[in-house]
Structures are given as structure tokens and as C-alpha cells.
């Protein structure tokens, strides 16, 4: 038998399939020498989603700096004689931006002006982590729904119901210390899960769009909790006319992690556990595989035997519990003597930004929450020391969302390489062979 009549081996067939796919997807001739693997790794690092998020934040800070310059009085004064003494204006611009961002750093990470007292100097970092705690919890709930193709913007309602449930147990049902905290936490998570699960149930049974349903449930939750806070015998504190609950009993409060001089408490540990749980759920569990399959293509998942309607209910139950953890934290972790209907403080909507910046991945959401917590903590120092409005931070957050939503724009500005969609095919004897031998 001659060489021309020999049947190709499985490895040769896999190699041929791989070359055909590469040529079809990239438009590159298979006869051309392959791109070195080191170059592919560089393109994957600098053109991937993580790099886009980092550069989006950098761009947002640059545009924030431009706004600071445009609104600074010293820069405006020096601009009058720019052509005669241009260095004065440039120096004023530098002082404005550097002063603002250094104050942001001092208020969010480390107050180097008080470096002689480490306990005081490190307090900004603990404030950042405290502010980030509810953002991470709510962001995980939004991101988990994103992975299934659901747009969960009902964070406000889920937080309010969870907070009302946990607050009622924490304020009006005395129990032993440890048991009281556990019961209040569980009841709050159940409240958030049921409020989120209702969205999934309506989506599964009636096909109702989750965006409309969550918006309506936000209003229902707000007015329901407001009514309970104005009703004696419900959530309203005894002998009080204001729409506010009674103080949370000490036995139901989250214990402090670093002492009473810091605001960091058990809630931060809980969001770390929640992040690990969501990562394991999505990447190491059968349920997470079904979630991702439905998120990629619900029709294909249905053909493969996955009950898509059940997945919608399951994911919204878990997402509601995660967002509810943020509401529980607002009640059991902030000892202000009770809570009101505005306890969500916009966290339910900020969580959408956190989930987008984190690319709907648990670890990304965790660090995105810390970033936004730092922006919030540092904005007050920036306003107090430099006179820059806190709204500048909101503008920076808005720019982050803008650039996250436009990856091609970020790649064009920084001239980042486009990641190769066939990067996972760079080992044809494994991936392509597996496809051929199925």
C-alpha cells in the first residue's frame, strides 16, 4: 500500500480540522507560519476582559481629572494670563488633580499624613472595606443573574425586604446572643431570596420580562416597608411618630473585627464566603454548569434536557439571597439605632455597575466592589480637604460604565490587541482531537 492510499490518523485529522477552523475564523492562510504562543498569551492578557476593566478605570480617572481642572478656581484664575505665564496655569492644573487624587488616596487607603499613628493611618482602608461590603454582596447577586441572561435590577426591593425581615427579628424578638444573630441573618436571606425568587417564578411561568417585574417590585417593596415603618406594632419603634424601626438589639449586631474604633465587622467575612460560594457554584458544580448553559443559549440548553424555567427560579432565589445579604448588612452591621426606608442608599443600582466592572465574575465583582467602596470613602476626604464636590466621584463611576460598555473604544485608545477567539485551540492535539473523536 502506497503512502497516498494510507488513511490519515486521528491526530492528523485533528490537525487538519484545527487548521481549517483557524483559516475560517481568522481569515489567515493555513500555509502561513502560526503565530508564536508567547504573542498569543500577550494578546490574551492585554486584550482580555480584565485589561479592559483596568484601562476603563484609568480612562475614567483621566476624564475625572479633566473635570477637576475645568472646575478649579485656581486654574481659572491663572488661565487669564496663560499666554504670558503658561507655567502658572500648568502648575495649577497639576496641583488641582494631584491634590484631589492624593486626598482620595488618603481617604480610602492610607492616611500618610498620620503615618506616626498606624491605627489612625490605616482607618481609611477599613472604611473602604466597610463601604465595599454591601456593594460586593449585591454585585454578586446581579452578576449571578447576568450569567444566566437575566437583568436583575431589583436590588433595591430585595435589599429592603431582607432588611425588614432581619430588622424585625433583630429589634423585636429577643434571643440568646449567637442564636439571635444567626436567626436574624437567615431570616433576612430568606426574605431576599423569596423576593428575588418571585421574579424568577413569574419569568418561568408567564414569560414576564424580569426588568419590568423587578422595577415594579422595587416600588412595591419600598412602599410596603415604608408602610410597616409607619405602623405601630409592625416595624415602627414604640412611642415614636417617625417612620423608623426600633434599635437593633446588641445580641443581633454583627461583631466588630478590629475593635470598636473601626466600622469593619463580620459582614466583610460573610461577603468573602459569598464570593467563594458563587465562584464554586459557577465553576465547580453541576448547577453552575446549567446556569452557564442557559446564559449562553437557553434554546440549546432546553434541547440538551436542561429545564430552563427551573433554572430561572433557582438563580433568582440565590441572587435574591445575595442581594439580601447587603440589606441585612445595612441593618445588622450599621448601629445607628434603627433603620428607615432609605437604607438601600442606592446600593441596589450601584451593584449593577459593580457587576459590569467585574465582568460578572465573582473575583472581579469582589475587587470592583472594593474599588467603588474606596471611591466612596475617599470622596469625603477629597471634598473636605480640597473642596471638590463628591459628585465628581459619581462622574468617574459613570465614565467607568461608559468605557466598560464600549471595549472597542478602550482598545482603540490604548491600541490594545484584539484577543484571539481561538486561543483555546492552540493545542490542536487536545482540543481539536477531542472534537473529532466525539
Molecular structure report:
- This protein is mainly α.
- Helix 11 crosses helix 12.
- The longest helix is centred in the middle third of the chain and has 30 residues.
- The two termini are 29 Å apart.
Could you give the topology of this structure?
Layout: H1 10-26, H2 37-47, H3 49-71, H4 73-78, H5 86-108, H6 118-121, H7 123-147, H8 155-172, H9 177-206, H10 210-229, H11 266-284, H12 286-296, H13 298-303, H14 308-332, H15 347-357, H16 362-386, H17 391-404, H18 407-414, H19 431-436
Helix pairs in contact: 3-5, 3-17, 3-18, 5-16, 7-11, 7-14, 7-15, 7-16, 8-9, 8-10, 8-14, 8-15, 9-10, 9-14, 11-12, 11-16, 15-16
SS-derived structural category: mainly alpha
- Give the termini distance in whole angstroms: 29 Å
Share of residues in helices: 55-70%
Number of helices: 19
Rounded radius of gyration (Å): 26 Å
What are the secondary-structure elements, in order, as H or E? HHHHHHHHHHHHHHHHHHH
- Report the sheet with the most strands, covering strand number, pairing sense and barrel closure: none
Stretches with pLDDT under 50, minimum 5 residues = 1-5, 40-47, 422-438
Give the amount of beta strand, in percent. under 5%
Q: So what's the overall shape?
A: globular
Number of strands: 0
Mean pLDDT: 84
What's a quick, concise take on this entry?
It is built from 19 helices and no strands. The chain has 438 residues and is mainly α.
Record keyword descriptors for this entry:
mainly alpha; disordered N terminus; 438 residues
